Structures are given as structure tokens and as C-alpha cells.
UniProtKB/TrEMBL annotation:
Domain CHAT: residue ranges: 501-765
Pfam families to which the protein is assigned, alphabetical: CHAT
Keywords: Signal
Membrane-spanning parts: none
SUPFAM superfamilies assigned: TPR-like
Coiled coil: none
Keyword Lipid metabolism part of the UniProt annotation: no
Gene3D superfamilies per UniProt: Tetratricopeptide repeat domain
Top-rank taxon: Bacteria
Annotated signal sequence range: 1-28
Name used for this protein in its record: CHAT domain-containing protein
PANTHER family: RAPSYN-RELATED, SLR0380 PROTEIN
InterPro entries, alphabetized: CHAT_dom, TPR-like_helical_dom_sf, TPR_rpt
């Protein structure tokens, strides 16, 4: 199993649980008919795939039950509302409702409800990629269910726990959990769960290369499913089983034709059954997956016909999480047939359908572990590639420019979704709602937008006179390898081994642009990096004679739509500086921080919190005052793959990114929000693109216009010297923040002690550079 695996947000198990819960809803006489009607209406909406409507009804029911003092009804409504919120991608809302539901479940003392609430909380943590926490909650729930002899629930929870174990890569344990779940389901005569658990076990067995065992598990599931009456759940089970055979066909080339025929037959049966029962959402999956099988067999006309039926069914069901997949598949098929115009329309429709859907919905499938799921990254990059192809066919520059901008916008949409998924909240949407486009911000700035394809690297560059394109024949694999070597060797302060890599990256990423840069007299380069490019400082690229920073100010932003381009108001600058000099919590001391903070407070008026005064309550108290528009934090910090493991060290605790957002958010709704957030002594891991994504987005997360942060921990004295000079230059209103950083870096570079780029290039200016 891999990161491609996702827990379904509308699994047959969840559907079964909802039916079970509705069966236990308090009677109308006890709780009032209005709340009961809302609960049933919400269930009907959920069954039809209208989770927005269901969420509204269940939240209203929860309020009515609460007003009537009916704790159990309140709990049930919260449980359902949390499920809908999670399925719609509103994870924070789901957490709030589930935490309240958990309190109610503990107060009521009903073990079944306590187990169910713990399990749903665990599933929401899965959606947030917090697999360890998810496993803890699901394990607690399973112990309660087993202890209280809730056999069906215990079996279902073992299946859910198996999913989490698979996501963690603990395949043997996952296989055992699925086997135990199937045994429990058989004992309790829960056929749908038995089928799902056996298919899940088959998929894990395939990952373990135990193909005979996988085939046997699928055969057992098929036998049990054949004895089931025609129903919505049976159609869902047939699709799940078909995808299991599809995967087996891929893993067993000698049996490919046999298993593929089996998969196709099951999908055809599922489609007919779904159509008969009016289940258009399931019909869309059956037709769509069948079309995908034909696509793999190069039967493009038949594949396209089936895919169109899938699109129609998804539209009829109002199921965007299904619809975008089949619109995307249509685009791929039309591209392979050479019909670029219709393909482009299909891709654009898929992107438009996907845009309002949160990442959790986009990553979910129809209800199974599916290691063949495609990343939504592929959709946006395939769309951008197609737009670039169309641009190349245009004879007029103005027409080509429209396609180039559309290609850039497609990648921009993906970057926003990626950042939203990393931080798991709406900070990206809030930023996008209040910024303006960057294209015409500064006549002396070039915005460089690299797009890394598997076979080449495209450079889209916004110059003052328009957008231009340069295609570089370097593959994603070659570029990534060069970046990894550069980053690793750049941190070795005693050698110049980094230099050949710095020059190679310069030749690929900068040299094709030099003629335009010089002709237009550009003095600032703003990079919008993708993937591994986020992990390196562009300022340290080298032309064979000098570093890039010697000629240009350099800044970085995670996305064009995420940068507020207004310049800082230097006349109103008020600084809050905070940091550590002492060794705390196992981290080494930072003795030069005191000197650094003293210098900053001599440049800008403000307050400081040092050592024992640098604690969260004091920081919050100062920020509540609202006087500050510059926040400087000099402390150890780490950006990790998982945002929950990212932190800034305080004297007695660790400040998470969510806590930082909450604190800085105290300034967000003033007329003048936070202008600059500086984080020195932070670090990200070499080769950790996702951690670097968190660093790149920190200004967005915190609601600051700009951030200055480090990619790796550097010498305390060098950091202090560089930061002090940056703030000294920042007082000059004629100098942009990007140029203030350039001057500071050049000052450190010019000294013999710290001339190596390991000392000065780690500092990145993020977002607003003016």
C-alpha cells in the first residue's frame, strides 16, 4: 500500500452504519417530529449523494434536539452531520462536531455510541493523514465493541483499522485485520462487510506478492456476493470486486486476459443493477471503470462511449466526485484520438467540476482501497500540457499568450489545492479572496513559473511586456536528481562540491531567460517553484562567475493567487521580537539571538520576549494588543511532511502551525494585517518536498503578507548578522524587501568567514517581496 491509498468517505460500511443509527433514533413522541423529519430528510439526501443538503438538515436537527434536551438525538444528529462534513471536505467542522458528539457519548454511557463516535473520529483523522492518531481511536472503539459483544460493529472496526494499517505500510498487520473482519462478518452474517473485507484482504495480499491468496479471497467474496439479492449495496460490492480483479490482472500478466474478462463482466452486472435500482452514482462508477478497462486495451471508441454514459449518470446523480473523473477520462481518450479541441474542453470541464471539491473528496473513491488511484496532480498537469500544445499551434502571439496563461492557471489551481491539503484548512481560500493578480505589479520584476513534466521542463515567465515560454529538454527525473545533489552538497560548509550542480541548474532554469531579462532591465526574480524546486535556494545558483544573488534580488511564492502584492508601510512598522538563547527541550542554545533582538529593537520600535518570557500566553497577550505589524521569532523550528509535526520551539512548549495561525490571526482582520513574519533557525529535511511546501506556505497559513524563513539551521552568528542587516535595510522605503535581503546576503557573502552559501542562501523571502 502507498500514499495513493485513500479511505473512502462514502463506503458501504458507512452507509450501513447510517441505516443502523437511523433505526435507533428516538421516537417522534420523545424528541419532536420536526427533528425526526430533518433526520430522515438528511438520510434521503445522503442516499442520493446530496451531502450538502444532508449536512444542513442534520445540523438543524442537532440544534432542535439540543434545545429539547434530548442528548441521544443530539448525539445522533451530530454524528451524521460530522460524517457529511467530512465527506464534503470540511474537516475542521467535522472535528468540532465529533468532539462534541464524543462528550455526549461519554455522558450518556452507551457503549455502542461511544464506539461509533470514536470510530468516526478516527476516520476523520485518516482524512487528515494522521494515521497514528486514527489507529488509536479505531483501536479504542474496537476494544469497546468487542468487550460489549457488539459483533457486527467489532468486525466493521477491524476492517477500518486494516485500512489505516495499510495506509501506514503495515501490510501483514493489515492483512490480519481484514481476515479477522471477514471472519467476524461471516459469524454475524453481514454479507456486505464480508465482501469488502475479503476484497481489501486481496488487495493487501497483492501488495505482498501473494497472488494465489489474493485470488482465493476474491473468489470467496464473489461466492458470497452471488448469494445476495439485487440491491444498491450489491452493486457497490460488484464494483469493488471488479476493481480487485482489475488489479490482479495487472499484477499477473500470465492471467491478465482471464481476470480482465472477470472484471468487465462484474462491472457490466453492476451497471445494469445500478440502473435498475436508480442508483445513478453507482452506475457512473460501473460505466466509468469499464471504460477505463477498455482504454487500457486500446479500444478507444468503446471506452469513450462508456465514459460518456458515466458522465451522464454522474450528472444525473449530482455526484461531482464521480463526474470529474469521467470528464477527465474523456479528455484522455479524446487526446489519444487526436481530437485536441474536444479533449481540451473535457479537461476544462473536469477541472471546473473538481475546483469546488475539497481534496478529501477528490482523493476518495467509490468505497474501496484502490492502489491504482491517480493523483489529481495528473489532471492539472495533463490539462496544462494540452494547453501548451495548443499555444504552440497558434500563429499570433496574443492567441498563444491566452493559452500560456490558461496553462499557468491550471497549475496554479493545483498548487492551491496542494497547499490546502497540506494545511488542511481554508487559509488558502481566505488568501485568494483578498489578493490581486501579480502579472503587472512591478516593471522591474520577472515572475518565473517552472512546470516540471516527466519529459521536459517548461518555464513560463511573466515579464513587464507579457508572458513568454521557454521549453527546456530536461526530464523530471534528471532535474530532481540534480536538485537533490545540489541541496545535499550545499549544506557541506567545508567544500565547493555544490558548484557543478549550481551551474547546471543555472543553465537549465536561468540561462534560457537571460536575453529577455537583460533587455527588459529586470532586477528582481520571483520564483513560483514546483515540487523539488521548493527545497533549494535559487539565490545560490551560479553562472560560472558569480551567484545569482550578485545580479538579482530573489524571492519565492507558493502561488500567484496567494500573494498580496502591496508594499510594506515602513512608517507604521512596529516590531514584536521573540526568541530563545538558552538550551531547552534538548535543543542547543542560540547565544547570538539576544544581540540580534537588541539590534532589531534599535531599528524598529517594539517589544521583545526572550527566553522564559517567550511562552505562548505572553505571545498571545502581546498580539491581542494589535500594535504589531512585524513579528520576528528567533528559535528552533522544523517543517515536516506532516503539518502536525511542524513546530516552533518556545521556552516550555512547541508552537504548532495551527497555533501560530490562531495567534497571528488575531491581527488578520485589522485594517493593516501582519506585514512580515520572520522565522530564523528553522529547517526542512533534504528531499522533503512536502515539508518545503509547508515552509513556502507559512505566510499564507499565518495570514502574513511576507515571511522570511530558513531552509536549514545555520550558524547562529551568521544568522544574526544577516537578519540584522536585513532589518537595517528595511527601514529604507525605497528598497524592496527582496533587495533588502539581497544586500544582507551580499554583506555576509563578502566576508571571508561566511562566504560559503551554506551560511547565507538558506534564507528565503516568501510571498510579498515589495
Amino acid at each position: 500500500m502507498t500514499s495513493q491509498l485513500r479511505v473512502s468517505l462514502q463506503s458501504a460500511l458507512t452507509f450501513w452504519l447510517i441505516l443502523l443509527l437511523c433505526g435507533t433514533t428516538a421516537s417522534a413522541a420523545e424528541t419532536g417530529p420536526t427533528a425526526d423529519v430533518l433526520m430522515q430528510r438528511g438520510l434521503s439526501a445522503a442516499e442520493q449523494g446530496n451531502l450538502d443538503r444532508a449536512l444542513v438538515d442534520w445540523k438543524a436537527a442537532a440544534e432542535l434536539y439540543d434545545q429539547a434536551g434530548q442528548a441521544k438525538g443530539h448525539l445522533q444528529a451530530l454524528f451524521h452531520a460530522a460524517y457529511a462534513a467530512r465527506a464534503l471536505g470540511h474537516v475542521n467542522q467535522a472535528f468540532l462536531q465529533q468532539e462534541l458528539a464524543l462528550q455526549l457519548a461519554r455522558r450518556i454511557g452507551d457503549p455502542q455510541w461511544l464506539a461509533l463516535t470514536l470510530s468516526e473520529l478516527g476516520k476523520t483523522y485518516v482524512t487528515s493523514h494522521q494515521y497514528g492518531t486514527a489507529a488509536d481511536y479505531l483501536s479504542q472503539a474496537e476494544v469497546i465493541a468487542r468487550t460489549k459483544n457488539l459483533g457486527s460493529l467489532s468486525a466493521a472496526l477491524r476492517n477500518d483499522l486494516g485500512i489505516v494499517l495499510a495506509l501506514q505500510g503495515r501490510l501483514p498487520e493489515a492483512l490480519t485485520a481484514f481476515q479477522d473482519s471477514a471472519a467476524g462478518a461471516a459469524e454475524e452474517a453481514v454479507r456486505d462487510l464480508f465482501v469488502r473485507a475479503r476484497v481489501n484482504a486481496a488487495r493487501v495480499a497483492m501488495q505482498l506478492k501473494r497472488f494465489d491468496e489474493a485470488a482465493a479471497a476474491l473468489s470467496e467474496a464473489a461466492d458470497r456476493l452471488s448469494a445476495t439479492v439485487v440491491s444498491h449495496n450489491k452493486a457497490d460490492g460488484l464494483i469493488n470486486l471488479a476493481l480487485g480483479y482489475r488489479d490482479l490482472a495487472t499484477d499477473q500478466p500470465d492471467e491478465h486476459a482471464r481476470w480482465l474478462r472477470r472484471s468487465a463482466a462484474l462491472l457490466q452486472e453492476a451497471a445494469a443493477m445500478a440502473e435498475e435500482s436508480g442508483g445513478q452514482r453507482l452506475a457512473s462508477y460501473a460505466y466509468g471503470h469499464l471504460g477505463h478497462l477498455y482504454e487500457g486495451e486500446h479500444r478507444l471508441d468503446e471506452a469513450l462511449q462508456l465514459t460518456r454514459r458515466a458522465v451522464f449518470a454522474a450528472q444525473s446523480a449530482g455526484a461531482p466526485e464521480s463526474l470529474y473523473r469521467w470528464q477527465w477520462q474523456s479528455g484522455r481518450l479524446l487526446t489519444r484520438q487526436g481530437n485536441l479541441d474536444r479533449a481540451l474542453s473535457a479537461y476544462q470541464e473536469a477541472a471546473a467540476t473538481l475546483q469546488p471539491i475539497r481534496a478529501e473528496v477528490a482523493f476518495s473513491s467509490h468505497g474501496s482501497l484502490d492502489p491504482a488511484r491517480q493523483s489529481i496532480r495528473s489532471l492539472y498537469f495533463e490539462l496544462a500540457d494540452l494547453l501548451l500544445q495548443r499555444a504552440a499551434l497558434m500563429t499570433e502571439d496574443s492567441e498563444a499568450g491566452l493559452y500560456l496563461k490558461a496553462a499557468r492557471d491550471a497549475i496554479e489551481a493545483y498548487k492551491a489545492a496542494e497547499l490546502r491539503d497540506y494545511f488542511r484548512d481554508d487559509c488558502v481560500d481566505q488568501m485568494q479572496a483578498r489578493v490581486t493578480k501579480l502579472d503587472a505589479v512591478s516593471p522591474e520584476t520577472a515572475i518565473i513559473y517552472p512546470i516540471i513534466f516527466s519529459d521536459r521542463t517548461e518555464l513560463l515567465v511573466s515579464f513587464p511586456d507579457g508572458l513568454r515560454r521557454h521549453s527546456v529538454p530536461v526530464t523530471a527525473a534528471a532535474l530532481t536528481a540534480e536538485i537533490r545533489s545540489f541541496r545535499r552538497l550545499l549544506e557541506k560548509r567545508t567544500t565547493r562540491e555544490y558548484l557543478p550542480h549550481a551551474q547546471q541548474l543555472y543553465d537549465w532554469l536561468l540561462r534560457p531567460l537571460l536575453e529577455d531579462i537583460r533587455k527588459l532591465q529586470v532586477n528582481t526574480l520571483v520564483f513560483v517553484p514546483d515540487g523539488p524546486l521548493r527545497t533549494i535556494p535559487m539565490s545560490a545558483l551560479h553562472d560560472g562567475t558569480q551567484f545569482l544573488i550578485a545580479q538579482y534580488a530573489v524571492a519565492m511564492t507558493p502561488g500567484l493567487d496567494l500573494t498580496d502584492p502591496r508594499p510594506i508601510n515602513r512608517t507604521k512598522a512596529h516590531l514584536l521580537s521573540s526568541g530563545l538563547t538558552q538550551a531547552v527541550q534538548g535543543f542547543p542554545p542560540l547565544p547570538h539571538v539576544a544581540e540580534e533582538m537588541a539590534h532589531l529593537n534599535s531599528v524598529f520600535t517594539g517589544e521583545q520576549l526572550l527566553d522564559s518570557n517567550f511562552v505562548t500566553p505572553r505571545l498571545e497577550g502581546e498580539l491581542k494588543d494589535g500594535r504589531y505589524n512585524i513579528l520576528h521569532i528567533a528559535t528552533h523550528g522544523r517543517f515536516a511532511t506532516d503539518v502536525n509535526e511542524s513546530f516552533l520551539l518556545t521556552f516550555d512548549d512547541r508552537l504548532t502551525m495551527t497555533q501560530l495561525e490562531r495567534l497571528v490571526g488575531l491581527l488578520r482582520f485589522r485594517q493593516d494585517p501582519l506585514e512580515l513574519l520572520t522565522l530564523s533557525a528553522c529547517q526542512t529535511g533534504i528531499g522533503d518536498d512536502r515539508a518545503a511546501l509547508g515552509l513556502a506556505g507559512i505566510a499564507v497559513k499565518a495570514g502574513a503578507r511576507s515571511a522570511l524563513a530558513t531552509l536549514w539551521f545555520i550558524n547562529d552568528e551568521a544568522s544574526s548578522e544577516l537578519v540584522s542587516e536585513f532589518y537595517r535595510q528595511l527601514r529604507d522605503s525605497s528598497i524592496s524587501k527582496a533587495h533588502a535581503l539581497r544586500i544582507a546576503q551580499l554583506k555576509v557573502l563578502s566576508g571571508q568567514l561566511y562566504e560559503h552559501p551554506a551560511y547565507w542562501s538558506a534564507f528565503l523571502l516568501l510571498n510579498n517581496w515589495l
